[in-house]
Amino acid sequence: MAFTPRSFRGPLVTLVAAALAGCGSDSVTDANPPSGTPLPVIGHGETTVRYTAELWTRGTIAYTSTWGQRSPAAVGNAVSIWDVAGSTPVMVDSLIVENATTLGDIQVSDDGKLLVVATELANGSIVIYDLTNPLKPTRLTRYQTGNTSNGVHTAEVARVNGTLYAFLSIDPPTPRLVIVDLSDPRDPREVLVRNMGDPFVHDVFVRDGLLFTALWDNGVTIWDLGGGGKGGTPANPVQIGNVRTKPWSPGAGGSKAHNVWWFHDATGGANAKRFVFVGEEAPGSGSILNSSNGDIHVVDVSDMSAPREVAFYHVGGAGTHNFSVDEAQGILYAAYYNAGVRALDVRGDLSTCTATQKSSDGRCDLRKMGRELAVGLDGNVQAFIWGVHFDGSFLYASDMLSGIWKLGPASR
Amino acid sequence: MESHDSTRTSFGLRAQAIALATRVDPGLANRSYTEGYLTQPLIMANGSVLGGHVGGVLTLDFEGLTLGRGQLNPGAYGEGYADRRHPHTYLHEAIVVASGALGRIGVSLAGGKGFVPFGTDDPMTRPFAAYPVNHHLAQILERYVAIAAVSAGPVTLEGALFNGDEPLSPGAPPEASRFGDSWAVRATVTRPSLLEIEGSFASVTSPELVSGGGRDQRKWSVGARLAKSLGFLDYALMEWARTDELVGDLQVSRFTSILAEGSTSPGGATVSARFENTTRPEEERLLDPFRFSRNPSDLGIIGITRWHIGTVAVSKPLPARRVDVAPFVEVTYAHPSEELSPSGFVPRDFYGTASIWSTSVGLRLGIGARAHRMGRYGAGMPNVRSPATRGDQHVH
Question: Is B238 on the interface with A (CB under 8 A)?
Answer without folding.
Answer: yes
